[in-house]
Design brief:
The structure holds two protein chains of two kinds.
Chain A lengths: L5 H5 L8 H4 L16 E5 L2 E5 L5 E3 L7 H6 L7 H8 L2 H16 L8 E6 L1 H10 L4 H14 L4 E4 L1 H25 L7 E2 L4 H15 L9 H16 L5 E7 L3 H6 L5 E2 L4 E2 L3 E4 H10 L39 H14 L9 E2 L5 E8 L2 E10 L1 H12 L7 E5 L20 H14 L9 H9 L7 H7 L18
Parallel strand pairs in A: 4-5, 4-7, 6-14, 7-10, 13-14
Antiparallel strand pairs in A: 1-2, 2-3, 8-9, 11-12, 12-13
Helix pairs in contact in A: 6-7, 6-15, 8-10, 8-13, 9-14
Chain B lengths: L1 E10 L5 E6 L5 E6 L4 E6 L5 E7 L7 E6 L5 E6 L4 E5 L6 E6 L6 E6 L5 E6 L4 E6 L5 E7 L6 E6 L6 E5 L4 E7 L4 E8 L6 E6 L5 E6 L4 E7 L15 E8 L7 E6 L6 E5 L4 E6 L10 E7 L7 E6 L6 E6 L3 E9 L3
Antiparallel strand pairs in B: 1-28, 2-3, 3-4, 4-5, 6-7, 7-8, 8-9, 10-11, 11-12, 12-13, 14-15, 15-16, 16-17, 18-19, 19-20, 20-21, 22-23, 23-24, 24-25, 26-27, 27-28
Classes of the chains: A alpha/beta, B mainly beta.
Family (chain B): Belongs to the WD repeat CIA1 family.
Pfam family, one (chain B): WD40
Organism (chain B): Phaedon cochleariae (Mustard beetle)
Chain lengths: 483, 339
């Protein structure tokens, strides 16, 4: 079974056809041109071209990178096998080992600073798996990572805050552009933090849908900017290897996007994504009992003060376990646009529990209509509504996984006697038991807007906290047409 | 034994004819094929079948299957252009009043549930989709099922329940149902046994048995064993178990593309790549747990090329329609000898 979300399974991102079978990407193969046409001999250790004089030359293996696959509308298929080699726990351990070697040879300055950012959903998934409290689980994961060669373990909540604040402001810009300037194609704003959804929209619906997708980067990629740009700069431009722990496999695709490759540092904002399932495997392979590890601290390398290591105090945001985008933006819009405050939002379930909506009515007119649409079937219905011009929404929080990110495709699977639904409920309960974080109240975020980004809505905010999307042209290669 | 007598040959299309569907009243036949159009055939006053209507502007590529809803008011068509069209006569003439998009590539088959509330489609993209008809007569996607690992060739609903069967290039047949506790459709059974692509499936009248055929040139009969069955066949999660109780081999020389189980006579007809149409009859007094079926009629050169589809008329016993790569549709009357 593929580990990608349903949306990507459909767009052929996972169909395991190896590049040699169907890849249409032109690849340059280094070999000599012969006059009589090439003879190729297949041996166990590779393919050899036989020269006219009888000597042989080993042919290079064709390598397709994930970036090649993402930019191509052909098969795209090998993406998963490519991912396995480029973003696997093996790759991670290889990097750790290499770094350790450099360090033990005295090259401390050349060694990379290895940073791991933990997102909330996989920490909770592992906490339930190993029967730990969320904070203990995070603190023990910090210890585990430091044992295997990581220099700093950090909490990604700060990036969630940035993403929410940016999305709130972006929504107001779009709403006003529609209301006062009559600009079309900017509402509904659609959430952008789910790479399964974004990739599906790019490959399948292109220019119909892309203008609606929020340009705000996902928390993972904002974390990438923060760590590589700001923290890297603060620490004297030391090379950083940045790992994120995420709830879904699709995040690996997001990290590999060309948009998040930095030419200056010649590296990606996020170098490697590992998921809850993979971390569980790593722990099991090494025979490590997470519960038996000591608690350790999270770093806050973006702060000016030195002694900023603290024990983890995990937070949630209001709203869904996928980041709470709909709730934050709804409340912000009510106060910003209509000067109204509201307490908890009451959603109404539509066709199923994964499609629910909420609205704000004023003088008999619906001023704000928001929805949360999780899972591929609801994405379908939303997209078709949009295409037919029948959507009445101002904002939709779209996530490719049913139940959203707490049930991400790479979260630890339920034990044999539990269903996914029961496990998701448990994850939601644990998530809702955490103390609440309000992005507007974060002093650190405020300070970073000043010292790092040069103020709200600055060019730097656009450059580092926003991104763009690219429609992938449908390929009509005759070879791809089958019965 | 029996004989299949040709009643009439219908030919209009230049390309291959892929599929046929009888209207539930038995008086109208729809056909589709490479010409991208759908033809509707009915009898004139003299009893000859004529092409009455051609529906042209629904699809951009080959139309692979057409199927009438149980109420007879809707005709759905599946095309290699990745879309599904729903045609109705609300405005007087047949018009395409809904186009369902979502499949990534060729839609191979489709089926209405008995109630008409659900439509299932399947595609080369390996997925099976369930569409729900809303009160406003729109079609909402109720489920996208990624259970198959290859191209899905055929979907068929159970004759009375909302149970869907699908047949695939991955050699399996899968069963799906709505699971209210999950709020989604689930795969509730995988029938393995065919050694190659399963091309078509057909339920018997009661829906307690399913016939399948495919690239391995065999027919298999699958029987439902509900929870608590007398035979003691184990079941899981309250779902019935389906066991292969009969395999018919040695009758077909090529791939069997289609199978139709008549709900009136109980006869099974097959469409084969060897250009023949065959009729099978269940043996009398057989053990329900290992029934026998006998070949009682073969028309060797029923068509001049692959036979793509066979279908029994739902009202007139023994009336069979077939169509082929040769561009022809043939209507046959089956008579059992000695009756």
């Amino acid at each position: 079974m593929s580990r990608f979300s349903g949306a990507l399974q459909l767009t052929d991102l996972d169909d395991f056809i190896t590049p040699s079978q169907e890849c249409i990407k032109p690849v340059e193969i280094e070999k000599k041109v012969t006059s009589s046409g090439a003879k190729i001999k297949i041996q166990e250790d590779g393919y050899f071209q036989v020269e006219e004089d009888g000597s042989t030359q080993k042919l290079q293996k064709v390598e397709i990178t994930l970036a090649d696959c993402l930019a191509c509308s052909g098969c795209i298929t090998s993406a998963e096998s490519v991912l396995v080699t480029q973003q696997s726990q093996e790759e991670l351990l290889r990097v750790f080992e290499e770094n350790q070697k450099i360090k033990s040879n005295g090259g401390y300055q050349e060694a990379k600073l290895i940073v791991v950012s933990l997102s909330i959903q996989p920490v909770l998934s592992l906490a339930i798996r190993y029967n730990l409290s969320p904070n203990d689980c995070a603190a023990k994961l910090a210890t585990y990572f430091k044992q295997i060669g990581v220099d700093m373990v950090v909490d990604m909540t700060i990036a969630d805050d940035f993403a929410l604040l940016e999305a709130q402001r972006e929504f107001i810009r779009r709403y006003r552009a529609t209301e006062s300037d009559g600009i079309k194609n900017v509402l509904p704003m659609l959430a952008s933090s789910c790479p399964g959804w974004v990739c599906y929209a790019e490959k399948t619906h292109g220019s119909y849908i892309l203008p609606y997708i929020s340009t705000t980067r996902s928390p993972q990629q904002i974390m990438g900017s923060l760590i590589k740009q700001w923290v890297g700069h603060r620490l004297g431009d030391r090379p950083i290897y940045h790992i994120t722990l995420m709830p879904c496999y699709d995040k690996k695709l997001e990290a590999s996007r060309q948009d998040f490759f930095n030419d200056e540092t010649q590296s990606r904002d996020v170098d490697c994504v590992i998921t809850a399932i993979e971390l569980e495997q790593m722990l099991e392979q090494e025979g490590i009992s997470l519960a038996s590890l000591e608690n350790s601290t999270f770093s806050q390398p973006w702060l000016a003060s030195e002694a900023s290591d603290v024990f983890p105090e995990l937070k949630r945001h209001i709203g869904s376990g996928s980041g709470g985008y709909a709730d934050h933006i709804f409340k912000y819009a009510m106060s910003e646009l209509f000067g109204e405050n509201c307490s908890d939002l009451e959603y109404k379930c539509l066709r199923n529990a994964d499609f629910r909506e909420v609205f704000f009515e004023k003088d008999g007119k619906i001023m704000l209509r928001f929805a949360v649409a999780n899972g591929f079937r609801n994405i379908q219905n939303l997209v078709q509504k949009l295409k037919r011009g029948k959507s009445q929404y101002h904002y939709v929080e779209v996530m490719a996984c049913p139940s959203g990110c707490l049930n991400g495709g790479a979260q630890v699977r339920p034990k044999t006697d539990a269903t996914i639904k029961e496990l998701t409920k448990e994850l939601e309960d644990v998530y809702n038991s955490l103390p609440c974080q309000t992005p507007e109240d974060s002093k650190v975020v405020k300070e970073l807007y000043d010292v790092w980004l040069g103020g709200l809505e600055s060019d730097k905010c656009i450059a580092l906290l926003h991104t763009q999307y690219h429609a992938v042209e449908k390929n009509t290669n005759a070879l791809n047409i089958k019965w | 034994m029996g004989s299949l007598n040709l009643l009439q040959t219908l030919k209009k299309d230049n390309g291959r004819v892929w599929n046929l569907s009888w209207h539930p009243n038995g008086e109208v036949l729809a056909s589709c094929g490479e010409e991208k159009s759908i033809r509707i055939w009915a009898k004139d006053l003299t009893g000859k079948w004529l092409n009455k209507i051609v529906l042209t502007d629904g699809h951009k590529r080959t139309v692979r299957q057409v199927v009438w809803s149980a109420c007879g008011n809707y005709l759905a068509s599946a095309s290699f252009d990745a879309t599904t069209c729903i045609w109705d006569k609300k405005g007087g003439d047949f018009e395409c009043n809904a186009t369902l998009e979502g499949h990534e590539n060729e839609v191979k088959s489709l089926a209405w549930s008995k109630s008409g509330q659900l439509l299932a489609t399947c595609s080369r993209d390996k997925s099976v989709w369930i569409w729900e008809v809303t009160d406003e007569e729109e079609y909402d996607c109720a489920a996208v099922l990624n259970a198959h690992s290859q191209d899905v060739k055929k979907v068929v609903f159970h004759p009375t329940k909302d149970l869907l069967a699908s047949a695939s290039y991955d050699n399996t047949i899968k069963l799906f149902r709505d699971d209210p506790s999950e709020g989604d459709w689930i795969c509730c059974g995988t029938l393995t046994g065919h050694n190659s692509t399963v091309w078509s499936i057909s339920f018997d009248k009661t829906g307690s048995r399913l016939a399948s055929c495919g690239d391995d040139q065999t027919i298999k009969i699958w029987k439902e064993y509900p929870p608590g069955n007398q035979e003691g066949i184990p079941t899981e999660d309250g779902d019935s178990a389906w066991k292969c109780v009969c395999t018919l081999t040695g009758h077909h020389a090529r791939t069997i593309y289609d199978i139709s189980w008549c709900h009136m006579t109980g006869l099974i007809a097959t469409a084969c790549g060897d250009d023949a149409v065959r009729i099978f009859k269940e043996d009398d007094d057989g053990d329900p747990n290992s029934p026998g079926f006998s070949l009682i009629c073969t028309v060797d050169r029923a068509h001049t090329q692959d036979v793509n589809c066979v279908t029994w008329n739902p009202v007139i016993p023994g009336l069979l329609a077939s169509c082929s790569d040769d561009g022809e549709i043939k209507l046959w009357s089956f008579k059992e000898l000695g009756q």
